[in-house]
Amino acid sequence: MTLPTTAGRLPAVSTPVRFGLARAWARRLGLLVESKPALVGTGIVLFWALAAVLAPVVAPYPPNANHLAAVAHPTPSATHWLGTDHLGRDILSRILWGARTVLTVAPLAVLGAAILGSLLGLTAGYSRGWIDLVIVRACDIVLSFPVIILYMIILAHFGSSALNIIAVLTLTKAPIITRIVRGLTIELREREYVAAAKMRGESPLYIMLVEILPNARGPLIVDMCLRTGYNVVIIGALGFLGIGLPPPDPDWGGMVKDTYGMMSVWPHMALFPCAAISSLVIGFNLLAVGLREIGLRD
Amino acid sequence: MTDPPILALDRARISYFTRAGEVNVIPDLTFALAPGEALGLVGESGCGKSTVALAIVRYLGRAGRIVSGRILFEGRDVAGLTPDELRALRGHRVAMVYQDPMASLNPVMTVGRQLMEVPMLHEGLDAGAARARALAMLAEVKLLDGQSMLARYPHQLSGGQQQRIVIAMALMAEPALLIMDEPTTGLDVTVEAAVLDLVRELRQRHGTSVLFISHNLGTVVRVCDRIGVMYAGELVEEGSIRHVFANPRHPYTRGLLACLPSLGRDKRQTPLVPIPGQVASALVRPIGCGFAARCAHVEPGRCTSQAIPVRPVAGEPGHAAQCVRAAELPPWERRRGVAGAMAERRSGEVAVRVDGLEKVYRPPRGLFGSGRAPVRALNGIDLLVTKGETLAIVGESGCGKSTLAKVLTGLETASAGRVEIGGIEVASVRVESRSRTLRRTIQMVFQNPDSTLNPSHSAGYAIGRAVRRLRRTAGGAVAREVTRLLEMVNLRADLAGRRPERLSGGQKQRVALARALAGDPDVIVADEPVSALDVSVQASILNLLNDIQAERGATLLFISHDLSVVRYLADQVAVMYLGTIVEAGQAADVFAPPFHPYTEALLSAVPVPDPDAQGDRIVLEGSLPSATEIPRGCPFTGRCPRRIGAICDDTPPPTRQVSSGHRIVCHIPAEELRELQRAGILTRHSG
Q1: Where are the domains of chain B?
Q2: Which of A100, B70, B429, B577 is paired with B118 by a 20 to 30 Å CA distance?
Q3: Distance (Å, rounded) from C-alpha B56 to C-alpha B77?
Q4: Quick check: do B7-109+170-321 and B350-576 share a fold?
């Protein structure tokens, strides 16, 4: 029956095949524009991505340069739009440069977690039995630790660098992705097309990667988006705890840590980096909400 | 019809408004329903039947709107009702029953509370009185043990019981109009028959008007007085059941009747005639007759130049058709093939041999507790399928027929017994460990068109991959082979690039069939391949299966719950009940007395699209028992209408050879069964 939901899809049926793929993408972009959360989220994320890419060009000063003249009057002014910190470093420049680190580390960590988690989740969900049991229990163990303590122990032991932060975030986030992918796999492995693949003699690896994984991508992409936002918060928190990226390179969390003691006198020093963190997190969350909305409608 | 109609559509135009603009689903619809009358609306999916039902209670969603015309319910235009009046209308004056009962019931509320809510909300009854009403209503819908039923949750009921609860809930408010949208589509034939009889009886007792929407002409005949055939949003033919079935005047009505398998048809004498093409998108509405593009009687110019008026059929009051050639069409001859006269039994090689096959599912033991009882899905199946034949396996859902298919194809392994395919023992060989040759030998076509193809891959990829894996072909040869296979299933080669979301249900099943044929198999297992399709599409897929099988001499194992389809397609039939075969033999023998009492009940439940052949039915009590507790004696004893006594409960019945190749597993001797059954069902199905 032609119900409202399917009615919206009718036009696609009559489009010629050759333009199928291009049209599908155009349609998806169209949907992105139609979902308000997705639109705003994309806007915010794009803004920060541009800021990160263009930081060397648009940042008014080098991020670590001390402007001794400003130390006495660090508040926002015409020369320093967002003011300077207690060492006279331009906050706007540091935020722009800081975006580079956070937008490299957070998505890479999510990508790592997604790859590791997908492989584990597919294996667990597809093979079931004792393999499933081992993987699920291992995930439970990792998830049962208070993560911040875990970060502190690992980073204190191995030293803090961008690479180590990525590794730690990958390891601690992968169990969550594993659970999601495992759940989807358990459902998808019962589909008839999986049975058909078995009947033509496909290997388990092929079935997992080619038959099952592509159909789990919707929820996975939404979750990756959400998790990138969480990672931004965690990277901020690590910086705040002093186990983030080593100084003096700008790091939003570290900027807050260095200056929150002066909150009562010069609140701008901590507030602007905080605002940067929040806006980026909100951006990723809205994008995730929007993608889910589109996914539901599609 | 002197009473004013309870429901009248007066030139109603209903559209959905989407990004692509107005999608006019119903262009101009006029019909009326008298008090106490039952009107059946039939047509393929996409014809606007459900839209009409939703528009009557103004439940079209945000996108849908009644653009012009009026829908009068009890004389008032529903378009002008306030939200409060609408709420009073829905559920009180008009009740609806949908296809999926589980979707209509609240899973976290007991059945009792849901039933009692109706009069408490609409009539302000107190809980005690509402409870009494609910109990009375349960008795009316023939649910025994009402007290305990009221305390149950929906998931504790079978599908048939759930649908009865939904019907009870609908009738609790004493509605003036009951709208039923495919109320029996998801149910087994035996349950469907009971529900249809119930609706008929309740309608007579309460005088409720019924608008009955269905794609199955047989069910409509059972319940309704009048029938309206819808095509592309238009009522192309309308009239009393008797008139329309005896003298269909619209080519579409004739098409629907001609593509319907029935118990009197088999593939040799009365082939099904599918309606070519499919329902056009509502976006482009042709000038003139909407059906012209698919019509065998079309006359260019006359049919396609102006709007087609609805004309009454001479001499038949109330019967009208929207066709310029209605009066010119040749007289309709109802096809009544005389079943029987079967082709000679082939005595070729044995393709599949199954011996004492058993399958027991043992639920995994939990960490604590002893685990649940094992499920005995198959209990000693014996089968012999000759090369080039079609064996149909019939039974209600849960009888183990799909498990049998899975063991044959290696998706499951047997717990005991032997399975030989082409002389190779495969009972305990999982598909992963089967050789390529063996995998090529047996391939499968699945039930659900939406899950049979991977939504992430194109049709061509699915077929091509099968060619590569099963035939070790590579390079350009694969593409040529894909094209050949697509042509074989009557699909255009350019569909290869399409993803499943842009294929229709019938096209998906054709692609799935092409994929199964890629390895050039000797045995094709088809598990309910047409049960999710429209009748017209079903007919073409059945014919295709038949042609391909005949052409290639392949063996077809056809699993189905639909006896009409089985009668049409099968050479051999095996009737399954609770993991055993209760009757097996040549199709002609199985479909003629003596029957096993279960076969007899199944046959009597089949909806027959013929108003003159509506006899009494054998209604099976209850539903298929759980496969965890197999009775000691005959598996069918708990529901058998011909049970003869304690022997049925205690002693496993003997296998009786009725004639060559025809066996019945029953305590009653075949001769006695023949005598018992001669009077009843035979008369109903001679036509």
Answers
A1: 7-109+170-321, 350-576, 592-685
A2: B70
A3: 10
A4: yes
What is the amino acid identity at position B486?
L
Residue B121: predicted pLDDT = 85
- Cβ of B20 and A11 within 8 Å? yes
CA distance A35 to chain B (A): 14
Number of domains within chain A:
1
Å between B658 CA and nearest CA of chain A? 38
Residue A207's domain comprises 34-55+90-297
Find residues 232-291 of chain A whose CB sits inside 8 Å of chain B: none
Of A78-87, A136-145, B493-502, B665-674, the one with minimum mean pLDDT is: A78-87
Per CATH, the homologous superfamily of domain B7-109+170-321 is P-loop containing nucleotide triphosphate hydrolases (3.40.50.300)
Provide the chain A residues 9-28 that lie in CB contact (below 8 A) with chain B. Answer: 10-14, 17, 20
User: Are B147 and B135 in contact, with CB atoms under 8 Å apart?
Assistant: yes
- Going by pLDDT thresholds of 50, 70 and 90, the confidence category of residue A18 is very low
Counting Cβ atoms within 10 Å, is residue A68 exposed (0-12), middle (13-18) or buried (19+)?
A: exposed
Question: Which of A199, A206, A298 would best serve as a mutation to test chain B binding (most B beta carbons within 10 A)?
Answer: A199
This model of the complex carries an ipTM of 0.82
The tens digit of pLDDT for each residue in B82-108 reads 988 888 888 788 999 988 888 889 999
DSSP-derived 3-state class of residue B217: helix
**pLDDT recorded at residue A17:** 39
Q: How far apart are CA B577 and CA B593, in angstroms?
A: 19
In this structure, is the dihedral angle defined by the CA atoms of residues B260, B266, B267 and B271, taken in order, positive or negative? negative
Interface-testing mutation among A35, A126, A193, A212, with chain B (most B C-beta atoms within 10 A): A193
Closest by Cβ to A201, choosing from B50, B439, B494:
B439
pLDDT tens figures, A243-293? 877 766 788 888 888 888 888 888 888 899 999 999 999 999 999 988 888
CATH fold of B350-576: Rossmann fold (3.40.50)
Query: Which chain B residues are closer than 8 Å to A197 by Cβ?
Result: 465
**Between A10, A195, A200, which is nearest B281 by CB?**
A10
Angle at B310 between CA B183 and CA B240, to 5 degrees: 45
CB atoms B456 and A192 under 8 Å: no
CB pairs under 8 A between A and B: 112
So what's the pLDDT on residue B333?
A: 78
